[in-house]
Amino acid sequence: MSDHVHILAILPPKIAVSDALREIKANSSKWVHESRPELARFGWQDGYAAFTVDPATWALLGLGVALRRTGPAADDPAATAAAGALRSPVVD
After folding, report:
1. DSSP state at residue 41
2. What is the pTM (predicted TM-score) of this model?
């Protein structure tokens, strides 16, 4: 099981990175705890790292993230939960 998740996301300027990550962590933790009772001790670490990316490299980075999802991490509940949380819009 991996110990971290890579997320490539485009956020509108009115949504703070901290707000988006709080939603992702909260929703994905809820999903893990509800769907995988054996992972009752699952929890995200405090904090996160975030980087801005030049739009010219988005496609290249997206391909790299997609390729990682087909490897062993594809069965990782934390990665799956984070991906699901991203599909849900973050609202003010």
Report:
1. T
2. 0.60
